Amino acid sequence: MAVKRGEIYFVDLNPAKGKEQTGTRPVLVLSIDAINKLPLVVTIVVGTKGENISHDYPTNVRVSPSESGLPMETVFLCFQIRSIDQARFPKQPAGKVSDEIMRKIENAARYSLGL
User: Fold this and answer.
1) What structural domains does the chain harbor?
2) How far is Cα 98 from Cα 113, in angstroms, rounded to an integer?
3) Torsion over CA: 101, 112, 82, 12 (sign)
4) What pLDDT does residue 74 have?
5) Which of helix, strand or coil describes residue 108?
6) pTM
7) Average pLDDT of 22-49?
8) CA angle, 53 then 7 then 51, to 5°
9) pLDDT of residue 2
10) Residue 22: per-residue pLDDT
11) 40 φ, ψ (degrees, to nearest 5)
12) Of 6, 45, 72, 87, whose CB has the highest number of CB atoms within 10 Å?
């Protein structure tokens, strides 16, 4: 099963250290599908419940349930980019973002990385 760019999955991110996001969280697939089809790691952006983030920053993208398919507002923390093994992903995505939201994610990730 290959995950696809723009899909959202609930993934267990444990173990984690320090300020890394822990537990089962929504993650958005950032890596391109050509990479995702290979037996490599998948690059993701970590999400958190919108209620946990009271202020919007240029490094975050707030996504409504209607825009993501998730049951709650989610803020994708584009400074929390990780690459994880495909074995962490469940069989089915929990949601997916539009091309417009994906562009916002890309821009926030670029900003975070100084690109």
Assistant:
1) 7-113 (2.30.30.110)
2) 23
3) negative
4) 97
5) helix
6) 0.93
7) 94
8) 15
9) 87
10) 72
11) -120, -175
12) 45
Residue 90 tokens, joined: 């469940």
Give yes or no for a contact between 114 and 58, defined as CB atoms under 8 angstroms apart. Answer: no
> What is the arithmetic mean of pLDDT over 29-40?
95
Assign 36 a pLDDT band (cuts: 50, 70, 90). very high
pLDDT at 60 over 70: yes
**Residue where the block lists tokens 């250290």:** 17
Token couple for 66? 């209607």
Give the per-residue pLDDT at 14: 84
The average pLDDT across 27-52 equals 95
The kind and range of the H/E element at 67 are helix 65-68
Residue written as token pair 């349930």:
65
Whole-angstrom distance, CA of residue 64 vs CA of residue 44: 19
